[in-house]
């Protein structure tokens, strides 16, 4: 099916690439894609194109990668060139998903039907950079996608539509990310179709209550503090897969903990100290916490690979009584 509504797309990671692919495959003309500049990545730190750029180039869609869109910012010439390009590219609406650059009012004013953002939470909960991680970490029962009309605030614009999904006991940021990317892609195509048909979208201001901010995930947050309850640590491990993982130091070695669950069936001895290994079996390593115990089922030793407990223990035997350090050691 072909559409006449012209969509400029701005986004960077896989989450955004899923939306761009859905818009393009639905037949909407995409005259221009904005994405972040290529960044060094991987062991060789070679410059890597973003998933959005890779998709756009495969489809022959023009790509621009300004460092900034703010005339008053650090890169005024790049911003001016990008703004000129936006003004010179005929389009009806802009769709933004995990782009990573601030859009000043001047950019928001260019598209005749405004800028629509695909945000991975039920706003106003988890405005900001890491809504998927923070929803899992906090133990939220559900999350979802909010489509909103952008304004200059941080995820403060009025809402067009939302779709919800439960957060399961086994969801990681990786699994929830993929589910939300699919939902966001479907939702934006549905509403672009509506916009094309009616020329407008319904908007509702966000509730004033329930605002929370999803701070960007820092590498140092990987360090697990076994003085916390096992349930909170299990959520942290799930929230931090694939980045930055959970980490703890054992006899001077930094061990990454990639999968863990509350060990419901374990009676923690009264004299057990947080971080102490209570039991080691092929099913997992049981560690005493401030409240309850954690069964770690997937681990990684320094320089090694992520392995199920059984395989990990074959290469690095652990025994009951060993204790993970409690110092807030920086996580690698």
Poorly predicted regions: none
* CATH homolog superfamily of the largest domain: Formyl transferase, N-terminal domain
The number of domains is 2
| Fraction in beta strands | 15-25%
Instruction: Please trace the helix and strand order, writing H or E for each element.
Output: EHEEEHEHEHEEHEEHEHEEEEEEH
CATH architect. name of the largest domain: 3-Layer(aba) Sandwich
The CATH class label of the largest domain is Alpha Beta
* Outline: elongated
Strand order of the largest sheet: 5-2-1-6-7-9-10
Please tally the helical runs, counting DSSP H or I stretches of 4 or more residues.
8
**How many beta-strand segments?**
17
For the terminal residues, how far apart are their CA atoms?
A: 49 Å
Q: What gyration radius follows from the Cα positions, in whole Å?
A: 23 Å
Major sheet details: 7 strands, mixed
CATH fold name of the largest domain, please?
Answer: Rossmann fold
GO molecular function, one term: methionyl-tRNA formyltransferase activity
EC number: 2.1.2.9
Family: Belongs to the Fmt family.
Enzyme class: transferase
Structure write-up:
By secondary structure, the chain is α/β, with parallel strands linked by helices. The chain folds into 2 domains: 7-214, Formyl transferase, N-terminal domain (Rossmann fold, 3-Layer(aba) Sandwich), CATH 3.40.50; 220-315, Roll (Methionyl-tRNA Fmet Formyltransferase, Chain A, domain 2), CATH 3.10.25.10. Helices cover 26% and strands 24% of the residues. It has 8 helices and 17 strands. It has helices spanning 14-25, 51-58, 76-88, 105-108, 131-137, 173-198, 230-239, 309-315, and strands at 7-11, 33-34, 39-41, 46-48, 63-64, 93-97, 115-119, 127-128, 142-149, 159-166, 213-214, 246-250, 253-262, 277-281, 284-288, 293-300, 307-308. The strands form 4 sheets. The protein has a 7-stranded mixed beta sheet. Strands 12, 13, 14, 15, 16 and 17 form a 6-stranded antiparallel beta sheet that branches. Strands 3-4 form a two-stranded antiparallel ribbon. Helix 1 (14-25) packs parallel to helix 2. The termini are far apart.
């Amino acid at each position: 099916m072909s559409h006449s509504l012209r969509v400029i797309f701005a986004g960077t990671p896989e989450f955004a690439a899923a939306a761009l692919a859905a818009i393009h495959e639905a037949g909407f003309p995409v005259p221009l894609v904005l994405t972040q500049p290529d960044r060094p990545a991987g062991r060789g730190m070679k410059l890597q194109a973003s998933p959005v750029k890779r998709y756009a180039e495969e489809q022959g869609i023009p790509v621009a990668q300004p460092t900034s869109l703010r005339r008053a910012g650090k890169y005024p010439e790049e911003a001016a060139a990008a703004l000129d390009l936006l003004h010179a590219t005929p389009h009806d609406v802009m769709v933004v998903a995990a782009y990573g650059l601030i859009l000043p009012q001047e950019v928001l004013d260019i598209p005749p039907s405004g800028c629509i953002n695909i945000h991975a939470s039920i706003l106003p909960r988890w405005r900001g950079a890491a809504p998927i991680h923070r929803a899992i970490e906090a133990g939220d029962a559900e999350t979802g996608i909010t489509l909103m009309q952008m304004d200059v605030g941080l995820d403060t614009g009025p809402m067009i539509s939302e779709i919800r999904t439960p957060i399961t006991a086994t969801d990681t940021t990786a699994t929830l990310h993929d589910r939300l990317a699919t939902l966001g892609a479907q939702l934006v195509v549905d509403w672009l179709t509506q916009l094309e048909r009616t020329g407008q979208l319904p908007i509702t201001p966000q509730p004033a209550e329930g605002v929370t901010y999803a701070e960007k995930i820092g590498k140092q947050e990987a360090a697990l503090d076994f003085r916390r309850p096992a349930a909170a640590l299990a959520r942290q491990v799930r929230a931090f897969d694939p980045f930055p993982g959970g980490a703890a130091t054992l006899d001077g070695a930094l061990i990454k903990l990639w999968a863990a669950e509350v060990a419901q069936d374990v009676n923690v001895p009264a004299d057990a100290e947080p971080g102490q290994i209570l039991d080691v079996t092929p099913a997992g390593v049981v560690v005493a916490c401030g409240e309850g115990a954690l069964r770690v089922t997937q681990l990684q030793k320094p320089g090694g690979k992520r392995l199920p407990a059984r395989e990990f223990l074959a290469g690095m035997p652990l025994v009951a009584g060993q204790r993970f350090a409690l110092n807030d050691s920086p996580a690698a």
